[in-house]
Amino acid sequence: MKNEVHKKFLEAKEYLKKNEYENAKAILEKLDKQEKDDICIGLELAKIYIKDRNTEEIGEKRLLKLINTKNKYFAFLELGKFYSKKGKIKDAIKCFKQMLKGSDVDIAFAKLELGKVYVKLGDIDTAKKYFNELIDGNAVNKNYALLEYAKIDIIEGNYYDAKEILNDLKNGTDKDKSYALLELGKLEVKQKYYQNARKCFNELISLDDPNKDYAYLELGRLDVIMKDYKNAVRIFEMLLKTKIKNHAKLELGRLDVMSGKYEEARKKFEEVLNGTEEDREYATLELGKLDIEEDNEEKAIERFESLLNTCLWYQAMFELAVLYSLNGEVEDAKGYLQTLVTKNAPNKLQAMEELENIKGYKVKKIN
């Protein structure tokens, strides 16, 4: 890579670190025209394209070409993440397992992503196996594995163990501290220690880390819990100017639903449908809930069922279970809820509570 090209490439990478994708893309596209065979430029550009629904196919094609180059393991990593988000779990696993043939670093990142995929599948034992291999082997991404292990502890209700891990991570690098504070804050909210949660989110904001927008988002959600709707709206509207604007728009839509402003809520949710794949899935979930409010259960069921093969499968399944239970279709409701429990879904504890609410049913203890 020529000196001038390399300088511009580094400039684009700086923009990427700050999540300023449009600025990075503008530079990389110019460089790509000059240096058509440069695989480093091609890889970074593909990673940007694949984040946008309008260009994701171009990004996927570029990555598929790159698997035949020396950067193939980076390409497999990005392809695997992409397929995982799209709900193509088998394809994602294939990509990550290809990386197990690479260097120690490639293997470490493959195991981290495989662990995350198996959490989505509800196969917690396999996920733990991959995370433990990284932790015990002192891999380069050991702390990321610890973070994911803490999330599993939270899913399983082992809050003390999760806090122990997260508090240790707080003493690591600024990045470790950032992720740990965010997860700690969420856990404090879950346990209703709201003041502790607020301290975590405010400390994260003081770090001036890229995660600070998510900290603001959580503060807004906390204000909703505390019924300080005015401040919540202020925070969410501020976030409309950030990279997580669609998250903020979803929260504003939820507030509209709470206020009975269904038309305004629907408009916001439908706008979010034009975002990333993840945005679309969350918007579909919210539109399904809104359909129920407006007595359009058939449409709600259609939306929830469309999410059963996505990353939000467990939330969609829970909504279907509640809907069937309310309609007296108890056996169908039980089936969905027991699936959530046996698969160790992130909402397993909520599913267990709902099962116990169904008259005459005693939930089996899951070890």
Task: Break the fold down into its secondary structure elements and pairings.
Elements: H1 3-17, H2 21-34, H3 39-49, H4 56-66, H5 72-85, H6 89-98, H7 104-121, H8 124-136, H9 142-155, H10 159-169, H11 174-190, H12 194-206, H13 212-225, H14 229-239, H15 245-258, H16 262-272, H17 277-293, H18 297-306, H19 313-326, H20 330-342, H21 348-357
Helix pairs in contact: 1-2, 2-3, 3-4, 4-5, 5-6, 5-7, 6-7, 7-8, 7-9, 8-9, 9-10, 9-11, 10-11, 11-12, 11-13, 12-13, 13-14, 14-15, 15-16, 15-17, 16-17, 17-18, 18-19, 19-20, 20-21
| Helix proportion range | over 70%
Largest sheet composition: none
> Residue-averaged pLDDT, rounded?
91
Shape: globular
Structure overview:
With 367 residues, this protein is mainly α. Among the domains are: 1-102, Tetratricopeptide repeat domain (Serine Threonine Protein Phosphatase 5, Tetratricopeptide repeat, Alpha Horseshoe), CATH 1.25.40.10; 170-232. The protein has helices at 3-17, 21-34, 39-49, 56-66, 72-85, 89-98, 104-121, 124-136, 142-155, 159-169, 174-190, 194-206, 212-225, 229-239, 245-258, 262-272, 277-293, 297-306, 313-326, 330-342, 348-357. The radius of gyration is 22 Å and the shape is globular. Residues 362-367 have low confidence and may be disordered.
